[in-house]
């Protein structure tokens, strides 16, 4: 069974450009989480969805960040415009209600904004 | 509110020595507790979980953790460290229920010396 799939694995872009990160959760999972990991701030929860509905976006740093989940098998995290301080590894994770709530993480997207 | 404290951001052990990584939690309800491992340039992988069944939980790669309610602890141990155990380890707590957010600790980087 495929795990959480993220693309791209690496992204290098210039300041001011739009960046879109993609995630495919594990089939049958109905919760999806976006995290950001940096050396300075550690692992931060940005937003999470349950049944495709955003439940908590309090971790989204600012209006430049937006996330969507148009269906149960796809989500995007968009940064527009990007800034150097957005450089980080972005993880997507999914889980299933009614289980013991463990989350399964994707391999991450390493974003570098120059 | 739930929270997790990991004592020691860096732990170094010799190969073959006991590994002990400390985690204390705060939760107003019976918690679900997790340990995740992150190898360099990879996503987080579930090591083990406590979900109110047996208090001694065995996970992958020879790791285990014991839930101690009186001490609000969930320390991770392994009798004999291997070089391949070098990684960052995260403790997390979830209350389950209406939300399956995980609250992560700040992580402990384990180094294994030959």
Short overview:
The complex is a heterodimer of chains A (114) and B (114). With 114 residues, chain A is an all-beta fold.
Q: What attributes characterize this protein structure?
A:
heterodimer, A: about 110 residues, mainly beta, 4-stranded antiparallel beta sheet, 11 strands, about 0% helix, about 55% strand, globular, B: about 110 residues, 6-stranded mixed beta sheet, 5-stranded antiparallel beta sheet
Helix-strand blueprint:
The complex is a heterodimer of chains A (114) and B (114).
Chain A: E1 5-7, E2 10-13, E3 19-24, E4 31-38, E5 42-50, E6 53-56, E7 65-71, E8 74-79, E9 88-95, E10 104-105, E11 109-113
Parallel strand pairs in A: 2-11
Antiparallel strand pairs in A: 1-3, 3-8, 4-5, 4-9, 5-6, 7-8, 9-10, 9-11
Chain B: E1 3-7, E2 10-14, E3 19-26, E4 32-38, E5 44-50, E6 56-58, E7 64-68, E8 73-78, E9 87-94, E10 103-104, E11 108-113
Report on this structure.
The complex is a heterodimer of chains A (about 110) and B (about 110). Chain A has about 110 residues and is mainly β. In chain A, β7 (about 65-70) and β8 form a beta hairpin. Chain A starts with a strand and ends with a strand. Chain A has no helices and eleven strands. The model of chain A has no long low-confidence stretch (mean pLDDT about 95). Chain A has strands at about 5, 10-15, 20-25, 30-40, 40-50, 55, 65-70, 75-80, 90-95, 105, 110-114. Chain A is about 0% helix and about 55% strand. In chain B, strands 2, 4, 5, 9, 10 and 11 form a six-stranded mixed sheet that branches. A five-stranded antiparallel sheet of chain B has the order 1-3-8-7-6, with no helix packed on it. In chain B, a hairpin with a 4-residue loop joins β7 (about 65-70) and β8. Helix content of chain B is about 0%, strand content about 55%. By secondary structure, chain B is an all-beta fold. The chains are: A mainly beta (about 110), B mainly beta (about 110). The interface of A and B includes residues 91 and 108 of A.
């Amino acid at each position: 069974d495929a795990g959480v799939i993220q693309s791209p694995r690496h992204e290098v872009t210039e300041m001011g450009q739009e960046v879109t990160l993609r995630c495919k959760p594990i089939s049958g999972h109905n919760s999806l989480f976006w995290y950001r990991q940096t050396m300075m701030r550690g692992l931060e929860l940005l937003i999470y969805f349950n049944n495709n509905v955003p439940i908590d976006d309090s971790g989204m740093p600012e209006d430049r960040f937006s996330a969507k989940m148009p269906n149960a098998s796809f989500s995007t995290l968009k940064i527009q415009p990007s800034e150097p301080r957005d450089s980080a590894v972005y993880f997507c994770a999914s889980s299933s209600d009614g289980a013991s709530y463990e989350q399964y993480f994707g391999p991450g997207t390493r974003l570098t904004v120059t | 509110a739930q929270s997790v404290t990991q004592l020691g951001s860096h732990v170094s052990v010799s190969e073959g020595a006991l590994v002990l990584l400390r985690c204390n939690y705060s939760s107003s309800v019976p918690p679900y507790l997790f340990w995740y491992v992150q190898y360099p340039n990879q996503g987080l992988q579930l090591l083990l979980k406590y979900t109110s069944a047996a208090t001694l939980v065995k996970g992958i790669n020879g790791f285990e953790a014991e839930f101690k309610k009186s001490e609000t602890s969930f320390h991770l141990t392994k009798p004999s460290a291997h070089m391949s155990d070098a990684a960052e380890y995260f403790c997390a707590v979830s209350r389950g229920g209406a939300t399956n957010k995980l609250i992560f600790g700040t992580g402990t980087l384990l180094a294994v010396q030959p």
